[in-house]
Amino acid sequence: MNKKLNQYFMIDELNTTVPREILAGFTTFISMAYILFVNPSVLGAAGVDKGAVFTATALASAIGCLLMGVLARYPIATAPALGINAFFAYSVVIGMKVPWQTAFAGVFVAALIFLVITIFHLREMIINAIPADLKFAISSGIGLFIAFIGLHDGGLIAANKATVVGLGSFSTPTTWLTIFGLLLTSVLMVMRVPGGIFIGMLATSVLGLLTGLIALPHQLLAPAPSLAPTFGVGIKHIGDINSVQMWVVVLTFLLVTFFDTAGTLVGLAQQAGFMKNNEMPRVGKALMSDSTAMLAGSVLGTSPVGAYVESSAGIAVGGRTGLTAITTGVMFVLGMFFSPLLTVVTPQVTAPALIIVGVLMAQNMAKVAWTKMEIAIPAFLIVLGMPLTYSISDGLALGVITYPITMIAAKRGKEVHPLMYVLFFVFIGFMWILNVNH
């Protein structure tokens, strides 16, 4: 292996190998490939050309992953974030009756602001100001959140009017694919088989194809759809950002992406063991990578891009360097042409991986000082808030708002970083804005 490559990505130092990094990158891609189909569907509801969104999603994701891998050297992938794309389509375009072209202009302006505050290290300062206990809670909360997504996508839990959620239907054949994948992956993980999560996903896909529960793709290759309907539209309509309503939309795009990404980066860094003295090394480069990807995505024609929690699947397989993210980025480029093949990776295939990764990330709960109520209450609200609100940023808000209050009550107010007091007021405003938009 090239010595310079080894040194740059710290492959030996992080006790990993190139094949392991490539496997991790592929695992991450398989875990998040659904966004290539979900994002066009969501934005398509707002009247945006689905084909253009498909290509924009792939390219914006690839740009973010490659930047994260080459510059920040982290195994963290990026893509258009779920939740904020729904806000774009259903709240802004359909609810507020804002033309989708103007909504893209809102994303572009938010991305520019995002880039500026990243350049001035404001995001870096905020991430470093969050206390260690809350960082452990964020990582654990994300674990519960993605496990909840996996349980729901796999059909093991479902909506229930009487109890909010309940056990899913075992009469649905595809649910048994999830059960098979979960049991097999669990056995592989307990036996410490390398790449157990990926092997579990592969075996579940094969079983689905053999039983007819997953349809065989009709073809392997397909040309990437044209970007023409969305490319540069946001820039052309920047003059439409001329009302209080539109600035509220811009602010919402900015805040949700800001705190979603902050929470995700912290959680993934905790999982991978990157945190040193409660700080994330090279966090500035990681933040610059995702903010540049968000700007690129707004020009290409997609909703805000951010760090993806599914990166935890690659980290769980052993990904520790930027080679993981680079692999994921290359897969997104190839994914544009192999779109028919991606249909084999159904939610039931990825669900077991997300559940197991949730188990791995939840281990950080052991590091929270649960015996100190001033820490335990905000940490608990973060851990429980993320899955129950179905939002990383909302769960983070619950804990950050509570933290200064409980610390002052414990006569430990002086130990709270000044930025945490600033975040207290920012999150109150953030929650109010979200409530108004809902």
Automatic annotation (TrEMBL):
GO terms for molecular function: purine nucleobase transmembrane transporter activity. It comes from the Bacteria. The chain crosses the membrane at residues 21-39, 51-72, 79-96, 102-122, 134-152, 164-184, 196-216, 246-269, 290-309, 376-404, 416-434. It is a multi-pass membrane protein. InterPro entries: Azg-like (IPR045018), Azg-like_bact_archaea (IPR026033), NCS2 (IPR006043). Its main location: membrane. Keywords: Cell membrane, Membrane, Transmembrane, Transmembrane helix, Transport. Pfam families: Xan_ur_permease (PF00860). This is Guanine permease. The lineage of its organism: Bacteria, Bacillati, Bacillota, Bacilli, Lactobacillales. The gene is yieG.
